[in-house]
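Hey team,

Filing this mostly as a record. A colleague (T.K.) asked me to run one chain through the structure pipeline before their review meeting, and I want the input and output archived in the tracker in case anyone asks later how it was produced. No errors, nothing strange. Just documentation.

Input sequence:
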Amino acid sequence: MGNTHPGATSPFGMVSACAYSGAYPTGYGRYAKNTEGVPEEMFDRHQASGFTHFQQSGTGAIRKYYNYVRVTPMVQPLDALGESWELHDEVAEAGYYAATLDTGVRSEITVGAKVAVHRYTFPEHRSARVVIDLSCGGLAIDLGRTVPLRAQVESMGYGQAQGTVVMEGVPLSVYIEADTPGWRQMLWYDRRLIDGGTRLDFDSIRHTTLRPFGMLFMGSVRAGQTVEIRMGFSLRGHEQARRNLERECGRDSEPAFNVVRTRTRARWREHVGKVQVEGGTTARRTVFGTALYHSLIKPCVADDESPFWPNSGPYAFDVCTMWDIYKTQLPLLAAIAPERHTDILESLIRVCEEEGNFPIGYRMARGADRFFRQASALAHTALADAHALGRAGIDWSWALVHMVDDLRRMYGEDFFEHGVVHPITHTLDLAYAHHCTARVARSLNDRRLADDLERRGRQWVNAFDPATGLLRDSEFYEGGKWNYSFRLVHDMAARIALAGGDDAFIGMLDRFFGYGADPVKQPGQTPQPAEMAAGYALHRFEGLNNEPDMEAPWSYHWAGRPDKTAEIVQAALTWQFGTGPGGLPGNDDSGGLSSWYVWASLGLFPVAGQNLFLINAPAFGRSVLQAGDSEFVIETSGHRETPIGVDGLDRDPPVQYVQSATLNGEPLHTTHLSAADVHRGGRLHLKLGPEPSTWGHQLRPPSLS
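Output structure:
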């Protein structure tokens, strides 16, 4: 399960909106919480109790997440609020979601960057209503509900209302305009109307005292009559929410649905248009387009919206998590959305400044130190790459201060004192971060600091057992020492020597990827612990279902066997992705996995923190990457179209291998490019063939040693 949802989104927008069933993990769908095997169903149908805002995209093992401010069109009494109705005729487009409820109400939603607009078409009824529940949040699983701490709701008449709920320490404000001529508007509490009341205040809410509350608009409708609900959101109070609404929907009371939908569609067209591909089967093009779309939903970048510091500037949240996105998604955003990429990095620096450390994951919630068990010091890779590209808009001397300080926090203190830390993967993270920070320090002419950082960066070797060529025994986060052992370190030449040389290293990789091994049966629903343990004991590549494995196929490049990379990557592109439900081999993780698919299809892979791209056979005959103001063209000769997924079950598509390459007309004998080569634009031509060649066997990508 990719754990994505079909709701309305805007590129990097603060607001999303989708049908809400309470299912794991986005609030949309039918499935229960699950991390192993095929997920169990919570419901036997697609259903919704309304439409909520702020969903995650592709996250994994979470227990609760967002789904705030539920809007429910009803033709039933208020007592029925919370019931679910079957969904029919769903439509999902960029910036638009629609479905018909069992009640006969056609529901359409579109969003802008900070607004949502709902349009409901009712059957004839004398007492239709649109109910807004501000107490809603989280998921309908064990311990999955988000309970507001404080709240305030105010009805101002004339189709206007506002409210604030404090969720997970963050004040979320909404300003509402309702285009419902002649309808009454009323507050409600515990599913009972408060006739004549204009304001509700809750100073302290607990799980035991929570009762649902909100407001509603109610009146008679003719068959086919539509009503429109416009909602502006802010993390800085009602007034800013109102200004956000006016900015995107206008100051008058005219319907705004089509205006917002058209603008958001145009934004999506602009962003997705930054990558163009030619050829490919319909299914392959569909998966590619979907992957590119999913790569541009998160993180959310809400200008001037930080609830924690008063200054203006970008505020990025739903960085869920750096462990998921730093290798693939952030390099993609650096190319096709450079301004937003800079905003994200600037926001991360500000989080470090205000809250004490660079976050591994950062939600619309208090606390920058969540998810620290996943990894350490990952922002350093993205900052080093941005600095190498000469990105303006960042005070690099100030950024370096925070990069250095952050290296001593959490597991970094033990690494500083002992040169090794457990979980052992944090040793790799911290050594890599020291190397990346050293590059920035040296370019800023702080040679003494750079020398010290580089010396500590070489301590990645302490993580490995020379007797096995693998990582030392330790605890591992969502993985084991085999898949973590093939991460790309900054000195791959020394890494391969530690394993015993090219042949030994290739043999280890071949075993990991299952060359010559018997097929294995995938776990089904609710697998037994013994079955899962037997699977893990294979020490096998599990597919692209987790972050450590995303870069492992490219390890072959440093051993002089890019043809092996081609076999693994093209097998993944062919068999692990599809157009239907379950068309992703793992959690999409806020776009990290989808970004992998985009890069792999282009025949490139960014090596985060090293200002480097590796070259592989692409999935399309020709593609164009708009990197900033420049175009980087990847064209081929000898390319063959191949099917994917079930379309290719009748035959095994042939692997394509690079035979030779040119860059801007000049022979290219290396299997890599600098990031500057890609970002300045140019033309890479790859001659492909059905058999492995000697291209890339001699000249390896750069290593520190």
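Quick notes for T.K.: The radius of gyration is 26 Å. Residues 425-443 form the longest helix (19 residues).
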